[in-house]
Design brief:
Low-confidence stretches: none
Distance between the termini: 27 Å
Oligomer: single chain
Number of domains: 1
Number of helices: 8
Shape: globular
Number of strands: 0
Structural class: mainly alpha
Length: 146
């Protein structure tokens, strides 16, 4: 997976990405959205933020036949202009999403070592890749939602 464009990283800040994921994270963890935002910002402080943006960019690029890279970035800028931290929609939870949420918990320092070991198996790594792709597609849709 390639690095996302620098402008995407400027538009989809960690706070913006956290807001787009917060409702799903809050629902699954049975916490308030404010708590979910705090946990997500902690998890996205590391390399997972850039990896997720790369996945979202891949989904955006694959889904847009009419727009070039600059056109996609303009579309995102336009969609985020009024309410960049508007909360995202709930994502349907799949095994891949569950693995992605577990990775978020690990990166936020909230999951146990046994959770880390679950992702270190072949099946766990496969699910984590699927989850990252699903989360990237979800984020791509949220970044371009008016």
């Amino acid at each position: 997976m390639s690095r996302p464009p620098p402008r995407l990283m400027h538009l989809a800040t960690r706070k913006v990405v956290a807001a787009k994921l917060a409702p799903t994270f809050a629902e699954v963890h049975h916490v308030e959205v404010d708590e979910a935002l705090e946990r997500l910002e902690r998890a996205l402080a590391g390399p997972l933020w850039e990896t997720l943006l790369a996945s979202a960019w891949t989904a955006l690029s694959a889904g847009s036949k009419r727009l070039d890279d600059e056109g996609l970035l303009e579309k995102i800028a336009g969609c985020l202009a009024k309410q960049p931290q508007r909360l995202g929609r709930l994502a349907p939870i799949t095994p891949g999403w569950s693995a992605f949420l577990l990775q978020l918990d690990l990166d936020a320092g909230l999951a146990s070592e046994s959770a880390r070991r679950a992702l270190d198996t072949e099946e766990g790594r496969r699910r984590a890749r699927e989850g990252l792709d699903e989360a990237g597609r979800h984020l791509a849709a949220e970044l371009t939602r008016k």
